[in-house]
Amino acid sequence: MTAIEARFPLGAALMLDQLDTDPYEALARLRQHEPVSWVPVLDGWLVTRRDLCIEVMRDAARFTVDDPRFSTAQVVGPSMLSLDGDEHRRHRDPFAWGLRKPEVMKRYTDAVEREARHLVEALAPNGYAEIRRDLAGPLAVNVVAGALGLQDTQPGVVLGWYDEIVAAVDRVSVGGQIGPDARQAMDALARHVGATIEHGDGVLPGATATLAQVEVVSNAAVMMFGGIETSEGMTTSLFWHLLTAPDAWAAVAADPSLAANAVEESLRLEPAAGRVDRYATADVGLGDAKIRNGDLVIVSLTAANRDPATFPDPDTFDVARPNARAHLAFAQGPHACVGLHLARLETRSALTAALDGWPGLAIEPDSTPPSGVIFRKPRSLYVRWDPQAPGARQPSRV
């Protein structure tokens, strides 16, 4: 055991399979005893206490994303995700402006709610579904395609680009190559972004006021990546929590005003992105740790969201939790999620549609709990309902 491992024995003992399948107890021990811990299996510092997580995310001067090791930037190019300071603001601001809450509510509410109802109603006569593949995933793809306003592009095509780009990011993160398929996906996205800029609507055309077209393409890829992966996870995990917590589904069905808070509580208990990464820009102290210039610093949103100093009884899913919205699932600081209002609308719309269209909804026993080291969600969530129940909706004919 090295000297640094001896200083942080809990971090030294942490294994990837723990972080993947059932990280909560291990993260709780770290938060209590080693809130900033060196974790050899991650080759970085893991931050688990909520106040320290916030400190890292808010301080881009000491903890940056602008590092050549950032794998997403290697695949899609520089973007709001991989830049800091003035350049980050130049890339982010055009998209953030178009995705402010008033703009989202005015521009997207009807379309997102309609799409959620359409998916739920189409499945209603079957009496069964797999939430991730049949509802959360298709809804996320359709919403992203609509928000980006991509011209003459089917959602399935957008999903194909997304799959190739995500696979390339995964390969690059472990030392592999981008690959020709991902390059072709980026080229196809670039062509459609160009057409949207010239003839379309949505957030992309306005971004050209401050960004070159190649920069708009990079940020569109980032929005596609984040909008599909994390929104799918948000929605799937919400259904998991509501259907596995005693009486939670019945409580929201009886009082739909709880739906919005149920979304926040699900995000608290299981953020779709379990961590965000930064790199130290200088030798710096954080908690009891002495972090070296260039070290990877991993903010555990999963751990921060279960910090008992902020959330009493933190491992319990409580749809009426008064401070559920204090979670960090959308991060904080300059890199807080630009699409958080659209994501909330999407997940809430899926829940409302299912409450209305799938009476007697219940989880099937072969479903799997949330998992994933970085992106966390149930990999499969099978549900059944009674299609013959009074009030069950039939598919729309429009």
Main sheet strand line-up: 1-2-8-5-3
Percent of residues in helices: 40-55%
Following the backbone from N to C, one meets helices and strands in this order, namely HHHHEEHEHHHEHHHHHHHEEEEHHEEEE
CA radius of gyration is 21 Å
Derived structural class: alpha+beta
Overall geometric form? globular
Determine the oligomeric state from the structure: single chain
Total DSSP E strands: 12
- Poorly predicted spans: 394-398
Q: Helix count, per DSSP?
A: 17
List the keywords.
single chain, 398 residues, alpha+beta, five-stranded mixed sheet, three-stranded antiparallel sheet, globular
Summarize the structure in words.
With 398 residues, this protein is an alpha+beta fold. The chain has helices spanning 3-7, 9-13, 16-21, 24-33, 50-58, 71-76, 85-98, 101-123, 131-148, 155-173, 180-199, 204-207, 213-244, 248-254, 259-269, 301-304, 340-357, and strands spanning 36-39, 44-47, 63-64, 128-130, 275-280, 284-286, 289-291, 296-300, 362-363, 370-371, 377-378, 382-384. The strands form 4 sheets. A 5-stranded mixed beta sheet has the order 1-2-8-5-3. A 3-stranded antiparallel beta sheet has the order 4-12-9. Strands 6-7 form a two-stranded antiparallel ribbon. A hairpin with a 4-residue loop joins β1 and β2 (44-47). α10 crosses α11 and α13 crosses α15 (259-269). The radius of gyration is 21 Å and the shape is globular. Residues 394-398 have low confidence and may be disordered.
